[in-house]
Each structure stands twice: as structure tokens, then as C-alpha cells.
Amino acid sequence: MATVGLLHPGEMGAAVGGCLVSVGHEVLWDPAGRSRATTGRALSAKLTGAGFDRLIAKSTVIFSICPPHAAVDVARQVAATGYNGCYVDANAISVATAEQVCAVVTAAGATYVDGGIIGPPPEAAGHTRLYLSGPQANEVRPLFNRSALDARIAEGPQYAASSVKMAYAAWTKGSSALLLAARALARASGVERTLLAEWQLSQPHLTAQSERSAGSAASKGWRWVAEMEEIAASMTAAGLPDGFHEAAADVYDRACRADVPAGRRTATTPKETLETVISALM
Amino acid sequence: MATVGLLHPGEMGAAVGGCLVSVGHEVLWDPAGRSRATTGRALSAKLTGAGFDRLIAKSTVIFSICPPHAAVDVARQVAATGYNGCYVDANAISVATAEQVCAVVTAAGATYVDGGIIGPPPEAAGHTRLYLSGPQANEVRPLFNRSALDARIAEGPQYAASSVKMAYAAWTKGSSALLLAARALARASGVERTLLAEWQLSQPHLTAQSERSAGSAASKGWRWVAEMEEIAASMTAAGLPDGFHEAAADVYDRACRADVPAGRRTATTPKETLETVISALM
Hints:
The structure is a homodimer of 282-residue chains. By secondary structure, the first copy, chain A, is an alpha/beta fold. Chain A has helices at 11-22, 36-44, 52-58, 71-79, 95-107, 137-140, 160-188, 192-202, 206-237, 243-255, 270-281; strands spanning 3-7, 26-29, 48-49, 61-64, 86-89, 111-118, 129-133, 150-153. Chain A folds into two domains: 3-158, Rossmann fold (3-Layer(aba) Sandwich), CATH 3.40.50; 163-281, N-(1-d-carboxylethyl)-l-norvaline Dehydrogenase, domain 2, CATH 1.10.1040.10.
């Protein structure tokens, strides 16, 4: 059984940590400066609180699971300690950013494993995959044996795991932002009711889908902005147009500033959330 | 029963004309300089060939149904004759372009009705709507009574019909281009097989959907480029990001240049078409 460090458990990270704990590993996290919600999730996932230095000293593997805009900073903090274990970046980042993270941690003496998580926070088995790639990926994969997280080797180049995540989210989160923009365009043009009636006839899933998109954008848009920018950069690097995801970043940036009254976030209905988000886009 | 002019019947136009013929109207089209395929469709829809001048002189209503980039030119050709009947622009154009078409034809003495077609070429009833808007829309709608084309008034501002079409296609054709870009990104990053395996698990409809998108892009991309640009302009006019549809225009522009061997267009399988289109994107 391994001792694993987790930087920094949000909803996804806490659930991944919980998977490791469920099969017998010790998972350390650093509570310093973290919110009450984070602490609650860490407690319920049975993670072990530890100061940053102790986490670094005791962990043979460290997982970085954080908003994509923080990935390089987290790597720098770890590298600054001279950490020389295995460092897994499981964030939604481009190959270029993953290369940067790899360079930072390997310069300090660590080994780098590339990762990408697809699916919801893994609570029940069968819904979430952790893709891993790079020469040491096979040393990380078995940590999740018999857990609710399906860890798989992504065949292909060294940063295949990040690449799969980019291409997958390019559709899921990109299309979600596009749907909100289309509905906002109808609203702005004074034809939203007619569009909804037409959707009812020919695309009957889109009304509810746009409400779900609005809910996600309001609650998670703040960390999807950087993810969309990572995908836009990946598109550019591949010689493909970056406009879809530059626009999606803009949509999520506006949506997460939506004026949801404090404390009412979970109380609002999907329709109310949609109203708030569409207004914020325009 | 009315005499209706149709400029210039492609696949959609011929089917709309066929609907008018099916309920007893005479539909004139101008065969000059049109392809053998166009002539075949016009014949099978029982449209009546007529020189341009005769079409103008005899028609009490003229429908413009053409690729969006030609909409203003068609309006200018009609206005140059001093046509003073009813002019219906049923193309996928922005409000700004519709305003331009309206200004051109009304300056010559015609009345303008805004239109937008949603659905496939209307052959069987129940699948295709013609939205109409503007003060004279109610004079055009009854022409389609008892036909396979469901003509409806789009409530709202004068150019509501064009606006509905823009918002509707913003999703359908925008998302189709996005899906192709996502798959091309996976291909370019060397992880397409892993992406397809992940889609199989969590988005099982996307593989076939991307093949259908490739088929449409290869066959219709040439007229969707301008449509995506019209939507991008509509987004900008509404204060929304134009990047989704600028990128989609780029995707369709590349896709329709895909090197499908001449004469094999209908013979290629969906998988072969997808290969050709994805290669053209990269």
C-alpha cells in the first residue's frame, strides 16, 4: 500500500482520493488555507490532513488535481521542495502545458506521469476513467485496482492522456457553451419562444439540455475558462481553428459571473439558473 | 392560384417549388446557365421553365432560395427589373443582410417578406417549416396550405424568420463543425482510437454522428461557409462571441475542398468520407 499526496482536493480530487483510500492507500492532503467545504469533502473521503512538507516527504506518488490554470504553479511548489518521487498531473491541460509541468518536476528529480480524467467525480464504479500515459504510467495504474476509478493506459505519444482529455472536452464543454450562445442569440433577437417551439418539434432534447448547460456553466464555469483556453491552444498547435474554444472560454467567463444571489445557488431551479446565465451572456 | 417565381432552385428550392405546384400554383424558374442536375430536379418538381424577364413579369410572388452568399445579388437582379410584387427571401442570412435585401427590393417598389427554412427539403409533410415574418407575411403563408411545407408566422420583430434560422443553425451546423474539429484534434494528437473507445463508453452516439457530420460537410460545406459567417455576424450584432461560427466557417471551407475523387461522391462509405474530411481539416 502506498502513501499518496493529493494537491489540491476539490470535488474531483476528493473523490479520486476516496478511491485510493477505499483500496487501502493512505492519502495525504494539505488543509492549510482551504475552505470549509474542501475540508468537509476531505474528511468524508477519509483523506489524512498533513502539512505541505510532511506530504512531500512521505508521498511516493503525488497527484495534481486542480483547476487547469493552477497546474504549473502546483508543479513549481512541489519542485521547489526537491521532491523526487512520482508526479502525476491529472489536469485538463494542453500538451504544451503538460510539457511545461513535466519539465518543472523532472528538473527537481521527480518522474512525470501524464493523466486526464473523464467523467464525473468517481463515486460509483463504471462512470469515470483516469487515462495515464508516459513511460511510468504502468506504475501508477495499479494503485486504482478494485476502486471505483477505472485507470487506463492511453496508448500513443507521451502526453496521450492530456490529449484525450482535450479532444473529449473539446466536444462536451465546447458544445455546451455553443448551445448557450445559440439560445442567447435567439433571446437577443426576440425569437426565443419561436426557437423553443421549433426545438420542441425537431430537437426535443435541446431545451432541457440548455438548462443543464446553464447549471454547469454557473457552478463550474470558473474552472472551465482555463480549460477552454487550453483546448484552444491545442487546436492551434494542431493547425485547427481555435475560435470554438476561445468563444467557449468567453461564454464560461461571462456565465460564472452570473448574479446568482448568495446562498441560493443550490435553491434555484434549472429554469431560474438558465435565466440568470443567459442574461449574463448578453 | 398564384404564379410564383423561384430564384434559383437547388435541392431545397426545387422541393419548396414542388410543394407550391402540388397545391395548384404555377412555379416559374429560369433555366439559363443552370446545371443538368438542377434541370432534372426542376422537371421532377414540375416547375415551369421561363426566361428571367418573363418570370419577373408574370410572378406575383418571388422566392429567393439560394446559397446565402448569393442572396443580395439575387435581390439586386430582381430590383434592376423594377419588380413591384412580393419578394420573399427565405435564405439563411443575418438580420443585417436581410435588411440589405429588403432595402434593395423595396427601393424598386416590391414588398419584402422575411423567411427562413428549417428542416430537410420538404418532400413528406411534417419535417420542414418555412418561417415568415414582416407585415406582409400573412399574404405568403396561405400559398402553402395543404402542402408538405409547414409555413408559419414567426412572431416577433420584422426579421424574426431570419433570426430563428440563425439561432437554430447556430447549434445544428455549429455543433456539427465542432464535432469534426474535436475528432481532428484527437487524430492530430495521435489519440483518435482512445477517444473513440471513450466515446463508445460515455457518448456512444458521437462516432456515427461525426460520420454524418463529415458527410454533410463534404456535400454541403460549400454553401454553409457563408451561412456560418452570417451567424458569426449575428452573434457579434447581439454582443455574443463570434468565434464558434468563424471557426465553423473555416471547418466547412476546408471540408468542402476535401479531395473526394470526382464521380465517387455518392459511392464513398460514411467512413471513407470521414477519412477524407478529417484529412482535409488538418
